[in-house]
Design brief:
The chain is 30% helix and 24% strand. The protein has 251 residues and is α+β, with helices and mostly antiparallel strands. The protein has one domain: Ribosomal Protein L22, Chain A, CATH 3.90.470.20.
């Protein structure tokens, strides 16, 4: 049975154990230490440490063991973190995402994609959607009330990023206009759940039957889940070929 465990935390308000871990790198593996040295910005270093500590705590809470000794992670240079082969359940998938002060983590025994985004007032959402959205998504966006457009944009964005991450493709901006988000059907093997919480949007893509198990969730987060599950379709390359130009990013 597929399962997915999730955690979301504000890196400014860390619980004591994770706060103490952030000030020590004794629990990091060699590849994690090497990647940490490449991160020069203090905020990126904090996001890295919080994320890698949080996913260890999530693994221990879900599958047992000591988070700092029993769940070593590998940190590939150009890829997401993964469990080292000698761990007790090396077939598990892990996912991390961060935006501003928020860090999200997920673990699953099956396919997994995760993305979290916080609003940026400097972004022109309509312009960005013109670069990353399908024609259908742009029509829907322009038809809804301006007060709902930010939630709609970030739903589309996080769904597409989670889909790409599940396939280990990273942020392939040129692919985004060829991905169509839609309400899930019963026949979809992978579906996404979406949460809108305190301004942020989070999407988690996993097997349709997987129920989210929350660990250390902020109060009110679970209730912020959209009532509908979602899916992503890959459109033919010829679709919208005249529109495949990128003018903005959403990092």
């Amino acid at each position: 049975m597929a399962e997915v465990a999730l955690a979301l935390i504000n890196s400014v308000l860390l619980p004591p154990e994770l706060k103490a871990a952030v000030h020590s790198i004794d629990w990091l593996t060699d590849s994690e230490r090497q990647k940490l040295t490449q991160l020069l910005a203090p905020r990126r270093r904090l996001q890295f440490l919080v994320g890698h500590g949080l996913v260890r705590q999530l693994l221990a809470a879900q599958y047992g063991g000591d988070p700092w000794h029993d769940w070593p992670l590998d940190a590939p240079t150009n890829g997401p973190p993964c469990l080292l082969s000698q761990t007790r359940q090396s077939g598990l998938k892990v996912a991390l995402s961060h935006s501003a002060a928020w860090v999200a983590a997920a673990v699953s025994n099956s396919a997994l994609g995760l993305d979290v985004e916080t609003p940026n007032e400097r972004r022109s959402l309509q312009t960005m959607l013109g670069s990353i959205g399908t024609r259908e998504e742009q029509v829907t966006f322009n038809a809804i009330a301006p007060s709902d457009q930010a939630r709609e944009f970030y739903r589309i964005w996080t769904l597409k990023e989670a889909w790409l991450k599940q396939r280990h493709e990273g942020l392939a901006l040129g692919r985004l206009p060829l991905l169509q988000t839609r309400p899930a059907r019963e026949s979809d093997p992978l579906t996404a759940r979406v949460w809108h919480f305190r301004g942020l949007t989070m999407s988690c893509l996993a097997p349709a039957e997987a129920k989210p198990i929350w660990w250390n969730a902020p109060s009110g987060l679970e209730e912020s889940e959209l009532p509908q599950q979602w899916a992503v379709d890959e459109l033919p390359v010829a679709y919208g070929s005249d529109d495949l130009h990128i003018v903005a990013t959403c990092a």
